[in-house]
Amino acid sequence: MTMSSSFFLLGLALSALTAKQVAAVEPARPNILYFYVDDMGWGSIGPNGQADRKARNLPYVRTPNLDRLAAQGVNFTRGYGCHVCSPARSSLQTGFHQGHTFADRNDPDNAKKAIRADDVSMGDVLSAAGYVTGYWGKWGYGGSKDQVGPVIENVQTLPTSHGYKYVLAELHHVRAHTFFQPTLWSAPAAPNAVGGLELVPNSMSRYQNNATYPSTPALQNHVEYPKTAYCDDAYAFAALDFVRIQGQNYNKSGQPFHGLLAVQIPHAPFGEVATLPEWESEYSDDNHFAALADQTRQWAAMVTRIDAHFGNILAALEDPDNDGDTSDSIADNTLVVFQSDNGGPGGKNNVQLDANGGLSGNKGKIQEGGIRVPLVMRWPAKITAETALKTGTNCDMVVDVTDLLPTFCELAGTPRPLGVDGVSIAPALLGRGHQRRREFIIHEAGNGQSIIRGKHKLIRSKNPPLKLYDLDADHAETNDIAADHPELVKELESLLLGERVAEPKGFANTYHHWTGQDGARTSDPDNWSEYEYANAGITYTTADGAPQLSWTARIENKGDDSSAAHADADLNVLALEVRGNVSANAGQSLVLGPGINLTGRNEIRLASHATLTINNGTVSSLRWVEIHPDATLNGRGSIDAIVYNKGAVNVTGANQPILSVDGDYHQSADASLSTTLAGDRTSGFQVAGTASLGGTLHVDIADVFKPMRGKSYTVLSANRVDGTFANPRNEVVASDGSRFSIGYSKSAVTLTAR
Description:
The protein is α/β, with parallel strands linked by helices. It is built from 13 helices and 38 strands.
């Protein structure tokens, strides 16, 4: 698998600079433009099968702009969404998979409750990071389903409540079961509008007779175009307006933008496209087209129609002010993402055009045809013919819908929300930095649940209960190899069930914060906030008591004095953050009692001014322990996780303390590792995986120990050692003044007394 360079947008463009001068500035944060389609199967674009059909003179769907996007960028052949639209949109926005997000299936009540005020969405993080934000299309949450006179039913789940400023959208998926909704929800809205949204007519009148808008096809200046617009035309032109305006603003101010166009195409009903003028015109030269089934022709026309809209918007990146001069182009510095929410449905189009690319199953199913989706990314400033992930190539890196939120956070330079299931692929896009690993991804569907780890996919269903497939050799899932790998099946099933896929619908993580005083116990429920999610008199979720594996928990000091929380019993949560009060320079500690274990299944994060002390217990996570600058991990014991140290790790304790890491250890350039010499031993810091070194090494000398001149002592052992510490003159001056030279081998760091 090749890793791709990611493109970071052109650095802040001062208004005094010309477009050419701006282009010479070091790229900064990218604009992020996201095309999101509804029910478009994996095989519906050129590089996933349609180009091959064209070459063999078979009927194929025309997507010239998406194919050009893939040729100029990267086609991720193992991109994943969800099995149906509501959980896909919730996972996209929140970064949580179906085991943890509130909308884990197409529950009829999702429109009233899917995304909570506590959930930190894609719009929230990018808006807070200074991006101008826009959302157009099917949002699916917050409004009633009435075609005439819909109302807001839950303000906290609206796009305007989650960071999106410019909106033209549908708030209920049932209203989106037509392309001719009489009204759509719009923002900015009139003062005092509920949720900051108001209903506006679904009309193309603002775009018709406007020469600056291309025909896509026959959208304007056509007497037969309906008074109520085909809604995706309205969404697309609103997005086009936004890109033109914000593109010009970007060239003046350098403020980046994020736009998400989430169209209804090519979801049913298919026949409505046939009421539009010249709906088949793009296929007038295709001898195969007339012989296809009505549903196939309608589906193909829908896909090609939205592809043309995408082409208009991509052209606006090249020429934001539409004057024919592309010197103001912002395309190089805009990350464009194209993705479908789930696989394509069954039907004639799937049979006649192979819209799912030969994958097993379709929309709503746990098989690859239900969850694997087309995914393309283009970023000309970072993805080129010379970069690791070259333009026009296919990449088999597994990318889940939950990965987009943390990826955008990293590109925008803002922290990802705590404990999300997605993993940023920004380093892979950028071609630099450390690409963090995600061991597996999970999905739920009506016919079962699945876990994908590497090439293996385990499906848990009723009959037979467990099936295992090798996706590298069998992407159509025809050969069940479960009987040949019983231990692997058992291991994957345990991981899958641990992700809460067997919980009742509506189960989700809950959010809790520490309320205890200095020295209070973490096992006492009174020291934690309770959780309730309610709206309009209906309570959907509650959680209280002592910490649980479904908790996203924070221990934060908001006072003026340093404080400590004491774990007197094993502490198990989904994710945990410990944070001090930076403004008051007041620390927050979490002290584990003797033999006490801490588990943060998705993440343990030590933020600024935080300290975690281990006392011969185990700290574990399926992913990582992250130590931020000005944070410290102390003690002795075990860490069953990858460790990212940007702060300090101190191996401390009586006698000869040892801290072992059952995973990789990454120490940044500004971080430190401290250990204690107390006698002859293997090392004080043991890493089962790779130790990637940077920053500094410090050593304390135990009172009873006297190092012998010329003798070497192992202070760090690992399966592999990469890099070196940055100590001046490659030496360590210990706490008692003793001096040591640092030595490195492939698997150890030693100190030689001088």
